[in-house]
Amino acid sequence: MSNGNSDRAVFVFDPDAGYGMVREIKEAGVMPTPGLRYVAAVTGPFKIIKVIAFMGVEQLFDRLNAPGDDSATSLTFAKVRRSQYREHTVFVRIEARVADPSELLPEIANAIDVPLDNLEADVIVGDFDILACLSADDEDTLGSMVFAIRAIPGVRRTVTLRVLDYVSTSDHAPDDHRVSPA
Questions:
Q1: Environment class of 108 (CB within 10 Å of its CB; exposed 0-12, middle 13-18, buried 19+)
Q2: Which of 71, 72, 143, 180 sits at 20 to 30 Å (Cα–Cα) from 160?
Q3: How many CA atoms lie within 13 A of 116 on its CB side?
Q4: What residue ranges define each of the domains in the chain, with the CATH number in brackets?
Q5: What mean pLDDT do residues 151-163 have?
């Protein structure tokens, strides 16, 4: 599995997985499934979020068979969970009021004061339109970022999922959260 710029991703939102999954992967030191690059225990209607990379249609079908109640697929190269790892992180599922959700990406970047190239947000195919990952060094900043997204004209609804713990195969992840790919 490539970690290059051609990877797309399936985002699996799993309400039935156990919160202990992240701890078990940390203890093993390796992801349990090929392509799995990020797993987080989160608050909200789902317990676990999985980010699974894929490159071709055959791999997509394999990834869509991953256990989970709800899944979404990135339309382009996946940016979510590739760069910023800070103390506080949330995933924001965004439903748009505009025909082309990609029009909102520059507005989201501006609202949370990050360069568009550094925005961890993907336009996806699923029951919502954009998945954004926000991270900050403190709760107040993170909360302000979420509220700024909600205030953007063209954003219909958001669902915010707070990351409690995570593991990642990214070189950007802190050592105590980084594991090897399967």
A1: buried
A2: 180
A3: 6
A4: 8-167 (3.30.70.920)
A5: 97
